[in-house]
Amino acid sequence: QVQLVESGGGLVQAGGSLRLSCAASGSIFSINAMGWYRQAPGKQRELVAAITSGGTTDYADSVKGRFTISRDNAKNTVYLQMNSLKPEDTAVYYCAADMTYYSGSSYYEDDYWGQGTQVTVSS
Q1: Are 110 and 101 in contact (CB under 8 A)?
Q2: Rounded to whole angstroms, how far apart are CA atoms 41 and 108?
Q3: N-to-C CA span, the chain
Q4: Handedness of CA 88, 84, 112, 51 (dihedral sign)
Q5: In sequence order, what are the residues at sequence separation of 6 or more whose Cβ sits closer than 8 angstroms to the Cβ of residue 120?
Q6: Degrees (nearest 5) of the Cα angle 83, 86, 87?
Q7: Strand 117-122 vs strand 10-13: parallel, antiparallel, or unpaired?
Q8: CA dihedral in degrees (36, 49, 25, 17; nearest 10)?
Q9: Close Cβ partners of 27 (under 8 Å, ≥ 6 residues apart)
Q10: What is the spatial distance between Cα 9 and Cα 61, in angstroms, rounded to a whole number?
Q11: Which residue of 48, 55, 61, 101 pairs with 36 in a disulfide if CB–CB is 3.0 to 4.6 A?
Q12: Residue 11 CB: number of other CB atoms within 10 A?
């Protein structure tokens, strides 16, 4: 079984920083793209940042210059460094990954989601 476990959320004042981590575990053969999404109350889930296996990154316009996504392939972990946080960044943040896993002699590719971690930015 494959799973993603996030950590690092919390309460921070506007202008502060937080670092989110997401570790993948299980029968992983390879991890392709990884990303962070967020969902605020009453809003749709949106992509915050993504990173390919080769390290190419992409960001939502609202977080460019403030957030940095990175990954440690040896640890199967993706990070989101969030600086200059604003109250509008308040949301539940979800990690997602496109992974290939194995079961016996078979390989499967699928998308996985973490359970989410709350980020609250006070004004």
Answers
A1: yes
A2: 34
A3: 41
A4: positive
A5: 10, 11, 12, 90
A6: 145
A7: parallel
A8: -70
A9: 1, 2, 101, 102, 103
A10: 21
A11: 48
A12: 12
Map tokens 């990303």 to a residue. 35
User: pLDDT tens, position by position, for the chain (123 residues)?
Assistant: 899 999 999 999 999 999 999 999 999 999 999 999 999 999 999 999 999 999 999 999 999 999 999 999 999 999 999 999 999 999 999 999 999 999 999 999 999 999 999 999 999
Q: Tokens 């921070």 appear where? A: 12
**How far is the C-alpha of 107 from the C-alpha of 123, rounded, in Å?**
48
Q: What's at 116, amino acid-wise?
A: G
Q: Each residue of 69-80: pLDDT tens digit? A: 999 999 999 999
Residue 88 DSSP class: G
Rounded Cα distance, 59 and 47, in Å:
8
Six token digits for residue 58: 């992409």
